[in-house]
Amino acid sequence: MARPPLRKAVRKTVAKHAAPVSTKARTEVKAKPGKAPRQLKGVALEKALKLARVSHDTFTQYATPAPALRGLEIDKGLAQGLTEALRPRKLARAFSATRFADLLAHSLTADGVGFALQINRDGKPIAARANGYARSVADGGVRWDSDTRMHIASVSKFFSAVGLVKLLYKKGISFDRKVRDFLPSYWTIGPKAYFLTFHNILSHEHGLWTVDCAYADVKREIANAPSAIGEGNHYANSNYALMRILIPIINGDLQRDVDYGKAIGFGISNDTAWDALTRKHFNDYMQENVWRPSGVSFASLKSTTALWNLPPFSGMKSYTDAAIGYGYPPVSTGTHGVDISSDLTIYAGAVGWHVSCNEILQVADKVRRRGGIISNRTLNQMFRLGYGFFGTHRNGNTAIHYHDGIWAASDVGETAYLGFIDSRYEFAVLNNHERDIKVRSLGLLRDRVHAIYDESMK
Predict the structure, then answer these.
(1) Most exposed of 9, 11, 257, 358 (fewest Cβ within 10 Å)?
(2) Which of 443, 419, 447, 392 lies closest to 85, judged by CA?
(3) 3-state class of 139 per DSSP?
């Protein structure tokens, strides 16, 4: 695999982005309207559609509207700073995966919520704990284990970062390159987006601002975000939602100056066509370059509720028994849950993947030890620059580089966590109950995980 000039650029990148470009310098740039897309005919049209692999199936699968969910909250509470303050502590013991797993499982069981957790050392499972129902008895009676899939919310950002970094390596594109060169040419490029780099969106550093992350949301943000908004570190879903637009263009699946709406015909708007095609090609790229090379065959941006009663799939329990969301207090066996993550291709890049603890850790092991996606050296650069990670929790000389995720709607919730401990350990936690409610708050899952980790080190 060709390596881009990243080693030389690391110090330059960090130094360059340590302080924001002055507001004055940025506001002097006016929004630049997008160019009229090419109207293709004949052989050129046929070639573009073949390259984009356009079909009726693309639009039946990917041209769906945003889900109408009551009280949808995307990563509530995650935009409060990217890295925790360093709190040195004197360690009384070395890390014990068994002790940590037992303490965390006991704590989560006491909450009365359903969960699964798994800890790997050197890529091999050494501790796994689970409790409660992924689906209540009323919904099929599925107990949690490490192979139970659930929507992992913003933990998806780690995988988006891996996919994008791999592609930048392959194409020899620097992290300091402006993303405007890889956006649809008909988009209007505003003053913020004019300066936006791959480093900005990967690190949330001087990047975009909004939590909204559908195609129309990101397009609007690129056009309208003023340069004075979002300076400094600010966690935003729109940074990673932009990746599902960028990856298909960088990878050569889509041509940025083509009006695919008119090329396809049937009255489809250019926005609708680009939305559907970028969903499809982002999913295809991630399957081919991240999930399958790691041995994960059924990662999906959609839940499997629709497959539940279909004869061809009814026997595929590991696929169709994915967890769904429940409220709190703990559900009774007759309580029905809510599928709050049915089709999240619309938010791909920022959230959306449905996978298990075991599958999350298969990718973690692949990128950390086995190569073929990114190297361990590259992963360490991602740790240092914050690419694909929400923050770092430190305890004495040890550190957990992590990302967590929250997905909540209709008074039910799903939460997830992925952590890398030093050089040998990775762990994942999935929990399918709302943790923050009026009668009682269980607190953020990441805060619980870190408190238990600290306790296990005493």
Answers:
(1) 11
(2) 392
(3) helix
